[in-house]
């Protein structure tokens, strides 16, 4: 928890530090890292109920597009909210449909959902299709660090919700749902409500992150926003960092995104290979993620 | 307390429950016995809500629960312990029980739930293992956990599914004593069992099933002497 | 053969052209089914026999496609002739993957297995991307565009060859599974998978064989794909998903049902491609929609 607070503090003051000629690049990378870490935190929330989604690329993308389309009419903050809500609403549908699916079937269904969404966005007349959608910067560009602090805000929100949930009663409901759904029901856990609530919160956060992302990149294309790359980032980071924790996705996100950015500079297309390799290595050698290095066996997650 | 009328459940060509009717009085320990495949587990699943009946009616504490989902039945006070114990492996024993205590009844405050856990953990003798991850328990401890978890939901009626399976005789004795303590604390018990000595020791009344039907009812000795019951277990004489 | 006018008489009065279009579409669909059936059969072996949800299966196809492409570009060897070599290479790749990556996680929770193969998929795709770039590499054989005309319908030669070869290969596969002792062992393992801790040497060998075969089948499909479509780093990914859809439709463990399911899928795709306006872009989406609906509907019905 302290680590989380520290990281957020650093995020807050980063623009004020003397960063020299690297400033613009660092801030840009940091902003990206915050958003992807927020996405990872969101994914982790849903994973706590045993639902391992491949649809978070879609939630991210829906939030991005919805916010981008709403911003000219509503202004930045309401538009971001709209993005989150749209993502959340779509997750309600997906959550309901997949209530009785588990494991591989659930994963494939969410992936199918994601791809259908992507095609819909691609084909819809008002989204600019394959050519893409230009997006206004946050607050119309009035605050140079506006986008940056929005990203910090989303990250803080995601981390905050993640921490809050770990300490609430809901934590037990989610863990029970994940570790034995049928038994949980017989013990009185309102499993359906728990799963759907987790879905909606998770998707809302992902959508928020997507919206801020849109305002950062100033240009959206379905292949970027909805790409499988986002879904992969969303799941590899928590696994690498440590599932069902807040520190895990946060730390993991910052590390991996930094790595990704560095690689992108060096090798261009194909930087995603780092995700694949990290995932494989993590599963083989560090299945409980980074945080397991900090905790002794037995303590840790529930 | 529990009233079952004309319960039927078919799976394709097999009628697992055929016009099953029985009553459970408050405070009693009722055993359901019968040869393999008699439909006992199906009955339990129908009672706890994991299966929906095709016909019939289940009333609990005066309310109809025939089609209610499992969570709702638990909230109303109908609890269940499974035969094959599935602890929440990554949580400690305490936390496993806490799940039952927190959610067994709607809106249970945390403090109240923790008190319930403390009581139940004493009652079931699990206190020394409170912090152990539930995935690391022995079979007997597993069974105790299962009972304890169900007890934490504060049931009025507890459904037990062959809890003695796999226990050594000494362990079975302990389990019998535990079930008696549970009844003495105010919980009515309906249990399925194969081991006749356990049934004789525990049950106030016995219901016998065969091929999905109830074929006999009454105190143990009466039922044991019943020719139909013997036939069911030993096969039809030529 | 099927004369358009005869069909017209049988079905009422749609015009001969419509009939021909329909038949042509159906034929294209069936011919395409061969590749799907190969890939799906391979996946069915991995999932059904070894019990591993292999998200990287399509990448074996991708590797096969690139092998064919490289051989063609390097030595002029016709892809259909390099099938055997590709099959061997991919069997080896599959075996190595099994020994190095799969076997260590057989005892781990299913989640870990899925993540591992998913990671492998991402890694392989991107390694290919790094090595070859994102461009699609087409193998242009001399008979690329050749077609066979029968009764007003045209059969593309490459698809026809691919279909024919698929039939032969799958026939051999089922013959192996049904009639040889080793094949029987494979099927037995599929029916009755032991806890991983109890794996005897025999079962381990069966796993190795099954996974190697799985990769080989996918690789062979990849070779054909290089001719009929192209070789590219991401070409395999779509086939992974389609293969999953097929085996889910056929039912897990049902090795036989894979072929009919593959045919249905291929036909559906062909029909959508022809009859839905803007066909091409929608094919993928319709496919995924069908998977989604099938999965969710079945899950609710089973309740």
The CA-CA distance between the termini of chain B, in Å, is: 41 Å
Instruction: Work out the helicity level of chain C.
Output: over 70%
Strand order of the largest sheet of chain B: 6-7-8-3-9-10
Radius of gyration of chain C: 20 Å
Find the structural class of chain B using helix and strand composition: alpha/beta
Q: Quickly give the CATH architecture of chain C.
A: Orthogonal Bundle
Q: What share of residues of chain B is helical?
A: 25-40%
Mean pLDDT of chain C: 82
Low-confidence stretches of chain B: none
GO cellular component, one term (chain B): plasma membrane
Protein name (chain B): ABC transporter
GO molecular function (chain B): ATP binding; ATP hydrolysis activity; L-isoleucine transmembrane transporter activity; L-phenylalanine transmembrane transporter activity; L-valine transmembrane transporter activity
Organism (chain B): Meiothermus ruber (strain ATCC 35948 / DSM 1279 / VKM B-1258 / 21)
Please describe what this structure looks like.
The complex is a heterotrimer of chains A (302), B (238) and C (303). Chain A is mainly α and 302 residues long. Chain A has a single domain, classed as ABC transporter involved in vitamin B12 uptake, BtuC, CATH 1.10.3470. Helix content of chain A is 72%, strand content 1%. Chain A is built from 13 helices and 2 strands, in the order H-H-H-H-H-E-H-H-H-H-E-H-H-H-H. Chain A is globular. Chain B folds into 2 domains: 1-77 and 158-238, 3-Layer(aba) Sandwich (Rossmann fold); 86-154, no CATH class. Chain B is 39% helix and 25% strand. Chain B is built from 9 helices and 10 strands. In chain B, the strands form 2 sheets. A 6-stranded mixed beta sheet of chain B has the order 6-7-8-3-9-10, with helices on both faces. The N and C termini of chain B lie far apart (41 Å). The mean pLDDT of chain B is 87. Chain C has 303 residues and is mainly α. Chain C has one domain: Orthogonal Bundle (ABC transporter involved in vitamin B12 uptake, BtuC). In chain C, 75% of the residues lie in helices and 3% in strands. Chain C contains 11 helices and 2 strands. Chain C has a two-stranded antiparallel ribbon. The longest helix of chain C is centred in the first third of the chain and has 35 residues, at 16-50. Chain C is globular, with a radius of gyration of 20 Å. Chains in contact: A-B, A-C.
């Amino acid at each position: 928890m302290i680590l989380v607070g520290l990281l957020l503090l650093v995020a807050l003051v980063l623009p004020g530090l003397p960063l020299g000629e690297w400033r613009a690049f660092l801030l840009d990378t940091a902003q990206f890292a915050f958003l992807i870490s927020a996405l990872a935190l969101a994914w982790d929330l849903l994973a706590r109920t045993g639902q391992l989604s491949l649809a978070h690329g879609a939630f991210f993308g829906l939030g991005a597009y919805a916010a981008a389309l709403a911003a000219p009419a509503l202004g930045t903050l309401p538009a971001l909210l709209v993005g989150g809500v749209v993502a959340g609403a779509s997750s309600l549908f997906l959550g309901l449909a997949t209530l009785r699916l588990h494991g591989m079937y659930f994963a494939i269904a969410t992936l199918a959902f994601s791809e259908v969404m992507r095609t819909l966005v691609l084909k819809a007349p008002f989204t600019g299709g394959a050519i893409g959608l230009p997006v206004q910067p946050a607050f119309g560009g009035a605050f140079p660090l506006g986008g940056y602090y929005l990203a910090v805000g989303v990250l803080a929100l995601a981390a905050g919700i993640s921490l809050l949930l770990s300490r609430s009663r809901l934590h037990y409901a989610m863990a029970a749902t994940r570790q034995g759904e049928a038994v949980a029901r017989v013990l009185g856990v309102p499993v359906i409500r728990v799963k759907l609530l987790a879905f909606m919160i998770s998707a809302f956060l992902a959508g928020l992150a997507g919206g801020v992302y849109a305002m950062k990149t100033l240009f959206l294309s379905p292949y970027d926003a909805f790409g499988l790359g986002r879904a992969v980032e969303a799941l590899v980071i928590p696994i690498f960092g440590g599932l069902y924790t807040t520190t895990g996705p946060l730390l993991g996100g910052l590390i991996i995104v930094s790595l990704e950015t560095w690689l992108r500079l060096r090798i261009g297309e194909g930087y995603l290979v780092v995700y694949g390799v990290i995932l494989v290595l993590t599963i083989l050698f560090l299945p409980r993620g980074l945080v397991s290095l900090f905790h002794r066996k037995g303590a840790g997650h529930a | 307390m529990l009233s079952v009328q004309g319960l039927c459940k078919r799976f394709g060509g097999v009628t697992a429950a055929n016009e099953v009717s029985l009553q459970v009085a408050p405070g009693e320990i009722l055993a359901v016995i019968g040869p393999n495949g008699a439909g006992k587990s199906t009955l339990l699943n129908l009672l706890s809500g994991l299966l929906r009946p095709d016909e019939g009616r289940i009333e609990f504490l005066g309310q109809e629960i025939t089609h209610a989902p499992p969570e709702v039945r638990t909230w109303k006070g109908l609890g269940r312990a499974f035969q094959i114990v599935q602890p929440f492996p990554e949580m400690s024993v305490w936390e496993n029980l806490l799940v039952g205590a927190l959610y067994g009844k709607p809106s249970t405050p945390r403090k109240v739930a923790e008190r319930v856990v403390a009581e139940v953990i004493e009652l079931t003798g699990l206190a020394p293992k409170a912090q152990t991850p539930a995935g690391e328990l022995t079979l007997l401890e597993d069974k105790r956990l299962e009972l304890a978890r169900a007890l934490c939901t504060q049931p009025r009626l507890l459904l037990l599914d062959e809890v003695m399976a796999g226990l050594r005789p000494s362990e079975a004795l302990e389990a019998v004593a535990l079930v008696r303590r549970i009844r003495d604390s105010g919980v009515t018990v309906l249990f399925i069992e194969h081991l006749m000595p356990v049934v004789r020791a525990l049950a106030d009344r016995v219901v016998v099933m065969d091929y999905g039907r109830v074929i006999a009812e009454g105190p143990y000795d009466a039922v044991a002497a019943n020719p139909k019951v013997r036939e069911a277990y030993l096969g039809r004489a030529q | 053969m099927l004369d358009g006018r005869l069909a017209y008489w049988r079905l009422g009065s749609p015009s001969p052209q419509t009939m021909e279009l329909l038949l042509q579409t159906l034929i294209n669909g069936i011919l395409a089914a061969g590749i799907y059936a190969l890939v799906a059969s391979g996946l069915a072996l991995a999932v059904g026999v070894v019990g591993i949800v292999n998200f990287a299966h399509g990448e074996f196809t991708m590797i096969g496609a690139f092998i064919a492409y490289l051989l063609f570009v390097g030595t002029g060897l016709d892809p259909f002739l390099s099938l055997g070599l590709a099959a061997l290479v991919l069997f080896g790749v599959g075996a190595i993957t099994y020994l190095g990556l799969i076997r260590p996680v057989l005892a781990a929770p299913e989640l870990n297995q899925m993540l591992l193969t998913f990671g492998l998929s991402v890694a392989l795709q991107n390694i290919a991307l790094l090595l070859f770039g994102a461009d699609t590499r087409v193998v242009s054989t001399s008979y690329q565009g050749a077609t066979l005309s029968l009764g007003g319908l045209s059969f593309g030669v490459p698809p026809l060859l691919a279909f024919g070869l698929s039939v032969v290969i799958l026939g051999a596969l089922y013959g192996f599974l049904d009639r040889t002792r080793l094949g029987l062992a494979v099927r037995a393992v599929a029916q009755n998978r032991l806890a991983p801790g109890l794996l005897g040497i025999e079962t381990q060998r069966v796993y190795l064989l099954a996974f190697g075969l799985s990769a080989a089948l996918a690789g062979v499909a990849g070779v054909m794909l290089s001719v009929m479509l192209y070789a590219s780093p991401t070409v395999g990914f779509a086939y992974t998903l389609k293969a999953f859809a097929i085996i889910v439709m056929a039912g897990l463990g049902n090795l036989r049902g894979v072929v009919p399911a593959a045919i249905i899928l291929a036909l559906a795709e062909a029909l959508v491609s022809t009859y839905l306006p803007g066909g091409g872009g929608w094919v993928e989406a319709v496919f995924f929609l069908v998977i989604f609906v099938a999965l969710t509907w079945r899950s609710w019905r089973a309740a």
